[in-house]
């Protein structure tokens, strides 16, 4: 048996493996390293981490190698490995990552929703409420990209925020409060007050001016984990608004500094 600290350390290693491969690998080296990592973890009985490692390997195949066929052949491997573990914490992480980064590219929307719901249930059972409700939040953003009616999404995000307030999940409230305002703008629900409100650009910063009046993208070097997530969700909302309203030049301005 192993404790959660081992889970976290192993995940950091795997995430580092994935990040390095996205930046540097242009051949099968990182894929082989990924398989070696999965094999080693299976040998030591770390099935939850093995599933996450298989996910990273498949992600590398898809993003770096551009080998969609190979990635699809690996598609069932992480889930088969995960079925042998009782780690609800790892199940929540797996469904959140696997569905967000891979399944949403190829699977029907109802399949992705079901996977996010599994992640939500696993997180609730593990007591990891923040990740559990982030799975719920990912259902909402994915539903928007797949054309689910805005009225339904707005109603769902309001329910999410009620639950977040009930469990005192400040991170979820701060992040998805931005998504709620985003839907209100698109639905034309904005009062004169809301029309002048910008989606928060930085955690803790007061909203001023129209959503188009934004400052330069802030440095992420000194942000903590929660601030990274909040800023990432703000960025997604802003990017979608620029496309929806045809403000492509604003979108280019937004994209430019983020690469620095």
Automatic annotation (TrEMBL):
It comes from the Eukaryota. It comes from Craspedostauros australis. This is Transcription factor domain-containing protein.
